[in-house]
Amino acid sequence: MDDIKNLYNRLLQRDSSLVNIVSPCVRNCCLNEEDVCLGCFRSIDEILQWKEASEQQKQRIINLANARKIDHRLKYRAYFDSIGDTSVSRPTSFRSPTIEDKLQNHVQRTADKEDV
Predict the structure, then answer these.
(1) pLDDT value at position 84?
(2) Among the residues of 15-54, which ranges form H helices?
(3) Is the distance from CB of 39 to CB of 28 less than 8 angstroms?
(4) CA within 20 to 30 Å of 104's CA: 12, 25, 41, 70, which one?
């Protein structure tokens, strides 16, 4: 296995065109208040650097974008739950309230007020 890794690394040093990381752009560009695209989750600086970036830099950009995407989905998990998107795993011991939970709580509070 080490022989294969060594050969792969030598080939990469000789011909960097053997690896071609594709842009994560999904053509759904919308920058948030932090200048991060909500389509691919790259910062505006990372988007502008993409063409000139090395393969290693591109991989780092993709890793950062993936981390931002997970953070975003966790921050807005109630919304993603409401549309049935389960692409972000959650700890089973903690679950943010869904819209159904909030509606049920509202109905219960309203019923409690009427009983008084």
Answers:
(1) 74
(2) 44-49
(3) yes
(4) 70
Q: 95 with 103: CB under 8 angstroms?
A: no
Q: Are 21 and 62 in contact (CB under 8 A)?
A: yes
Q: What's the one-letter identity of residue 90?
A: R
Q: What is the pLDDT of residues 34-61, one digit of tens each?
A: 999 999 999 999 999 999 999 999 999 9
The reply to whether the predicted model has a pTM over 0.85 is no
Q: Give dist(CA 87, CA 69) in Å, integer.
A: 11
Distance between CA atoms of residues 10 and 4, nearest Å: 10
Query: Letter for the amino acid at 87?
Result: S
Are residues 35 and 63 in contact, defined by beta-carbon separation less than 8 angstroms? no
